[in-house]
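Section 3.1: Structural characterization of target chains.
Under the original work plan, the team committed to producing a structural model for every single-chain target entering the pipeline before any wet-lab resources were allocated. The record below documents one such target. The sequence was received from the expression subgroup and is listed exactly as submitted; it comprises 202 residues.
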Amino acid sequence: MMKRNLSFLALLLLLGLASCSGNSSNETASDAATEETATADDEAATDEEPEEDKTQRKSPPKTAEGTIGTATVTVNYGSPSMRGRAIFGELIQYNEIWRTGANEATTVSFSTDVMVEGQEVAAGTYALFTIPGAEKWTIILNKNTEQWGAYDYDESLDALRAEVTPQPLDEAVEALEFAVGADAVTLKWENTEVSFKVSTAS
């Protein structure tokens, strides 16, 4: 009788050990799976590129805004600096298309229909390009606003082209700047000022 009891107790002990071993294996597998998931999440987070702080660019974004007649006029542009360089005729070649700023193409928005240098322009946003020259500049409003620089410029999408005359400045302007005045949009950089007239019906 005693031998049977001892055998029974030994069997219970073996079953208990087997159960503990199984639980330990399950816990180890579970821990490994959790760690693997966490590692994958960390790697995914690391792979995501942080959003660019555009204000830290060498040519930071700027905005010029004002009212001309009944229209709100807004210019968004990247503002490059001279940094000791000769600009017009050197860095910015004459008679070549220019983004009129830096980085993304400069844009100009009109809240209502306007006249630009005597030509009708519908309300909306346009990419602003120019062709600088020693005696004349060509102002261009282009319908493709989603451009980086002038690399994808397509003349067939022009909404307007107009010629204007640049004016010399007595003092150099270090960083490109735009201003919206009472009847014109003006840019200044280095020793040059260029404006184009804007008006509304009333």
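The radius of gyration is 34 Å.
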